[in-house]
Structure to design on (237 residues):
């Protein structure tokens, strides 16, 4: 019963989020997100630097990888929550506060594990794909976009790059995993992938759809019980 109540509450939160995103016009959303991005350029640069440091340290130091990756995705979800409160972006407050709580819960239940040696290449492929475009998010930055996105795309500030990055890190996890965390993140990421493409013209958000669909596929009961995504031998790190 308790588990069922948790899922019902989560479903209501998701529904509220999706409804709230439709209360503003695409023009209003674009204006707000452009302002947030431009005013937080320096913060975004710091987040990019932290991202690189965490990625390198996580690859080099296997024993601290899970802690480092956990701290990073918890940090960007918390920073996005705080920024959403400052700018009163109500859907984002719910999104990132929920994801932050689920990340913390998953870590303390030991359901957030980054053991690359037990991972098949398909996980690494989608994880790296999401990590690249989460870091190098080609929207909401001034020209030259390809260059500026490397330094100050709004990771840790607004929806799409932050959701994509969290989704990408979850693609790099192995069992035991948090069903709730992965499901909620995947559904919200999938939604905002379509939202970004069809309402905001952010065609790079196709990567959100791809990574979210991979997570959803991995959660499928028909696939979760076999070794499509995990193995016991070959070392990748």
């Amino acid at each position: 019963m308790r588990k069922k109540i948790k899922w019902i509450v989560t479903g209501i939160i998701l529904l509220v989020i999706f409804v709230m995103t439709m209360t503003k016009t695409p023009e209003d959303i674009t204006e707000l997100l452009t302002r947030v991005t431009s005013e937080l350029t320096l913060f975004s640069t710091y987040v990019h630097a932290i991202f690189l440091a965490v990625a390198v340290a996580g690859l080099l130091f296997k024993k601290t990888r899970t802690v480092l990756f956990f701290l990073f995705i918890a940090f960007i979800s918390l920073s996005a929550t705080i920024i959403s409160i400052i700018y009163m972006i109500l859907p984002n407050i719910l999104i990132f506060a929920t994801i932050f709580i689920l990340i913390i819960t998953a870590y303390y239940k030991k359901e957030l594990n980054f053991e690359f040696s037990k991972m098949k290449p398909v996980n690494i492929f989608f994880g790296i794909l999401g990590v690249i475009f989460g870091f190098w998010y080609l929207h909401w930055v001034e020209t030259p976009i390809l260059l500026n996105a490397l330094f100050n795309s709004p990771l840790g500030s607004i929806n799409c790059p932050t959701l994509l990055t969290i989704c990408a890190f979850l693609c790099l996890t192995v069992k035991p995993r948090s069903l709730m965390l992965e499901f909620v993140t995947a559904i919200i990421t999938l939604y905002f992938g379509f939202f970004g493409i069809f309402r905001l013209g952010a065609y790079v958000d196709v990567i959100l759809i791809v990574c979210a669909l991979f997570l959803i596929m991995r959660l499928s009961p028909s696939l979760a019980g076999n070794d499509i995504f995990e193995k016991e031998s070959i070392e990748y790190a």
